[in-house]
Amino acid sequence: MVQLTPRAIDLHAHFLPERYRASALAHGQSHPDGMPALPEWSAAAAVSMMDDVGIAAAALSISSPGVAFLGSPAERAALARAVNEDGASAVAAYPDRFGLLASLPLPDVDAALAEIDYAFGQLNADGVGLHTHYRGVYLGDERLDPLMAALDARSALVTIHPVSPCGWEAVSFGRPRPVVEFLFDTTRAVINLALSGVLDRYPAIRWVVPHTGAALPALADRVDRIYSWISPPAPAVDLIAALGRLHYDLAGTPLPRALPALLGLASPSQLVYGSDYPFTPAPQVRQLAEVIAATDVLDDEAKAATLHGNARRLLPRLAREVVV
């Protein structure tokens, strides 16, 4: 049985505490984003999977659709608070295995700022999990600048996760959105973060882009060159340099093609491991991990950095607890 070596730190892992799962099911989220089901999750089952695959620790976040399925700002704020408290309880039960990436009740910026203060100040969250957009307000929108400033002031670790894009009904052709549309929405949001200047104005935020950079490796040069030609005046943004500073998780299918393409945009020092559990079921997590363990696209030093070393720098609290 092949295990990840060194034992990985997982920066793309999800949790569905009971209060969140019950609310999601009560509001029609039994097949989120066209998925076949809303998966079950328990801390014990997650730890068992981690032991099997060779994952030392995982930073827990809420996947799509987050709390956006709730109609009122007050309901979204209450559920985000419940999610974060339940995540903190999981961390307290398994302090050496879990970290918490707090959920925010966006697009209500004031409520999100209050939740940042609570999550970091009271729950000792390890970072924040953001989604590509919140009811059409995409990352990079100037309305989110106060949030970006607050995250920058904390040098926060911030992971990005896609949700179904605006207008998905017309472009997904009835297929589950994680198949294609998630990758394009990630690309859309990250390009907007860069071209809007957010990545340059708030340089202390430590971003993690999911799914091996989505379509960014294929589109980065096109956007960098053509945008300045057709949208003068050209933005004072070095897009390639900005994207090269971000971190990228390997959740999903990084091999055989996506990872080699990403290495043309970002160095191995920017790569981290991601399982996408439980939306990727445990047997598939193992299969994908075995592919990463066997690849020669990364040499031994780069593979060790990807699985463990790079995440240690991003998540120092949890890294102190990890035994490699």
UniProtKB/TrEMBL annotation:
One GO term of the biological process aspect: secondary metabolic process
Top-level division of the source organism's lineage: Bacteria
E.C. numbers: 4.1.1.52
The keyword Ribonucleoprotein appears for this protein: no
Annotated ranges, domain Amidohydrolase-related: 9-316
Reaction(s) catalysed by this chain's protein: 6-methylsalicylate + H(+) = 3-methylphenol + CO2
A single GO molecular function term of this UniProt record: metal ion binding
Any single Pfam family the record assigns to this protein: Amidohydro_2
InterPro entries reported in the protein's UniProt record: ACMSD (IPR032465), Amidohydro-rel (IPR006680), Metal_Hydrolase (IPR032466)
Record's keyword terms, sorted: Hydrolase, Lyase, Metal-binding, Zinc
A GO CC term attached to the entry: cytosol
SUPFAM superfamilies, per database record: Metallo-dependent hydrolases
Enzyme class label: lyase
PANTHER family: 2-AMINO-3-CARBOXYLMUCONATE-6-SEMIALDEHYDE DECARBOXYLASE, AMIDOHYDROLASE-RELATED DOMAIN-CONTAINING PROTEIN
Protein name as catalogued: 6-methylsalicylate decarboxylase
